[in-house]
Amino acid sequence: MKVEDMGPAEMILNHFAYFSEYEEFVRQTDQNPVPGAAGLNLPLLGLFGEVGSLLSELKKKLRDADSYIGYHDSVIEEFGDALWYFTNVALRAGQNINILAQRMFREIDDWDEVDDYKFGGFGDIQPSRETEGPINYEKFEHGLIVLAGKVGRLLDDVASGHTKGNRDVLSSHLVEIFRAFSQAAEDADVDLEGVIKRNVTKISSRWPVEQIYTDLFDDDFDLDEQLPRHIEMEIRERTSGRKTYVIQKYNGVIIGDRLTDNRTIKDDYRFHDVFHLAYLAILGWSPVIRSLLKLKRKSKPEIDENEDGARAMLIEEGVATLIFNHGIRLNHFASINSVDYSMLKSIKEFVKGYEVEICPLWQWEKAILEGFKIFRFLHSRREGLVIVDLPSRSISIQPLN
Length: 401
Hints:
Elements: H1 8-14, H2 19-29, H3 41-64, H4 71-92, H5 97-103, H6 137-160, H7 167-187, H8 192-206, E1 230-240, E2 243-250, E3 253-254, H9 273-283, H10 287-292, H11 301-306, H12 310-329, H13 341-350, H14 361-381, E4 383-389, E5 394-398
Antiparallel strand pairs: 1-2, 1-4, 2-3, 4-5
Helix pairs in contact: 1-2, 2-4, 3-4, 3-6, 4-7, 4-8, 6-7, 9-14
């Protein structure tokens, strides 16, 4: 792809994290765009919350010491989220972060000697980073407290109306916050250029400007090892004596075992195979369905053992159970159209090392929501015809005749 054809995300990931490109990326990925000062409250709360999360990560590191092995990655992630909200605040307030960055290095008497330099970037405010030894956590802690204090003072001035109609006051706050960000990053030995690239990758996985599905994992295999591109699965509830179970039929043949809730308190988990069908439809992945249909990719022993084997199926069942238990607490997502990031992140960690790990967060979110849509239908009607269409990456359900 030529540079001139790249969007802001591609430009940042493949070249340099310019302020102008990141501003455009933030504009494109803002899920609650409210122009002007009227829209400042939400990103301000987000900024304050993310700075608080940075402090929380440091607290856990100091408390748990070497046992907290995910510290560095968490700090980078929280820095990125905080900078996204910072940039969002600046944009909604009509501020240019390139100019804010220039003012970080200027005195009051040359405050206005700045320009909209197109090629300024996050790497420019950290001209050289040389680690001289272990991180000074006391210094980093102080820097984060300073940062939190500056964000708090901005919130206080916004709440009291001191920034209303006074862009210079707001700009001054943002310059001080940006300077505190840079200092805290230096104290933590964090590369802001890398932080921004990680942030762009994360947000593009959850809220991409354009949703492009990953390729089907068995496209390059023979037809007799490919999952059907169209599936119509009958699902019916049956009762025998005191036992209630679910059967599934594909092409008129019963598939798999009779499913029960396997739990004293009944919760209709017996219908949970719809989640596997949803993973198949949206992600193009389901070792469980592949096993049920006897379509393991045996032509490549390594794929057969590692991607289609027992452990992969256990991973998928674990994901299904985790999501199902989460959904119970949320009324099966009946009135919710999103999945919280912490859950999606847990799932991505759960499937790490398997082919499905390349699927972005938005695909997982869609698979979960579509799966619960089918589940709610069955929860209400007790039977239905589930239709999976891989070319269109869709799953639907209709009443049985």
